[in-house]
Amino acid sequence: MTKPVKLTAETLKGIWAGVTLSWHEDYSFDEASFQENLHRLCSYDIAGIYTTGSTGEFYVLDWPEFQHMVDVFMEVVGPTDFPTQIGCCADDTRDVLRMVEYAAEKGAGGAQITLPYWMKLTDQEMLQFFQDVYTAVPDLPLIHYNIPRTKRFLTGYDYLNVLEIAPSLIGVKFTFAGSHFGDLQQATQLTPGLSYFVGEDLLVSAMQVGARGCYSSIVCTNPAFMLKMYDLAEAQKWDKSLEMQSLIVRFFRELGALMDDLGLGGVDPVADKGMAVASGLFAGHQRTRPPYIGWSDDGVAQIRDWLKERYPMLLADDIGKDL
Q1: Is the peptide bond before 148 cis (omega within 30 degrees of 0)?
Q2: Quick check: is 126 in a domain?
Q3: SS3 at position 167
């Protein structure tokens, strides 16, 4: 297996796919479907693939399962030219450290980390956490998953302090950017050396103020759509790219209403996995490990029918057709 090239702030850009985990009916790991979905993602010209964020159900894995998932992931993606990230998230520093150490050992291009989230961290505790992770794996590029669920949402001024003690930080997944757009704009100005990523429903607008990419769920329904939107925005063809962004905003709004009508869950792993299966891009079942309840088979079928009627450009079998 060739060793993947480590990410840098300059190379961390574009449309990244967060691969979902696959489960058998007894909720054991469906390795075959997981591998198949990785192979399918690798057949498209996306910027990279990462594991075990919210969509990747990081919170349901015990240590042996995490190791096995990383092993399988790196066995499939490692020999390719695709950049990789391993999500290394937990609610205590000890577990995060052994995750990032394992990711580094396996040759991951970077590690995506979030702050321990059960109780809000003080400034001192937050900085100590980053220092501990950097000290454990000083050569492994770090990406911070900045999300209010951790009870501590970081700003550009916070990142100035973090960079002093963890210079391996290269990027930020800046979630909920719509309600923190001013903070995002300020952060890109204060720390231009970091690569900021946002959701697809704000990607073009955020790229106008310095964001560089997206950790996308739509890319797991139709990669061609997201790649085209990103390419248009990178070329500063704002009218066309903003038109595609507006379509995504409308899509998410209508999807949310439909999920409510059908009684389907809407949290990240449930909706993202359900959409990936409904679109036809991902193999395996849409179930998620409890306590979260994945979409029913009937729900997936109804969502697919709705996609055919309202958003055929997001179906996987429409990949390659005129967008």
Answers
A1: no
A2: yes
A3: coil
Model confidence at 259, pLDDT cuts 50, 70, 90, reads very high
Helix-strand-coil split of the chain, %, nearest 5: 50, 10, 40
- pLDDT level of residue 322 (50, 70, 90 thresholds): very low
Q: Which residues contact 226 (CB under 8 A, 6 or more apart)?
A: 15, 200, 214, 216, 218, 219
Rounded Cα distance, 179 and 194, in Å: 20
What mean pLDDT, rounded, does the chain reach? 95
Contact between 141 and 6 under an 8 Å Cβ cutoff? The reply is yes
Phi, psi (degrees; rounded to nearest 5) at 215: -90, 105
CATH of the domain at 63: 3.20.20.70
Task: Return the SS3 of 65.
Answer: helix
How open is the CA angle 42-46-48, to the nearest 5 degrees?
80
Nearby residues of 57 by Cβ (< 8 Å), 6 or more positions away: 20, 21, 269, 288, 289
Q: Which residue has the tokens 């310095």?
A: 210
Backbone angles phi and psi of 52, in degrees to 5: 50, 50
For residue 166, which of 192, 188, 140, 198 has the smallest C-alpha distance? 140
Establish if 261 belongs to a structural domain: no
Compute the distance between CA of residue 214 and CA of residue 171 in angstroms, rounded to an integer: 11
End-to-end Cα spacing for the chain = 37
Q: By the 8 A CB rule, do 52 and 58 touch?
A: yes
* Structural domain total, the chain: 1
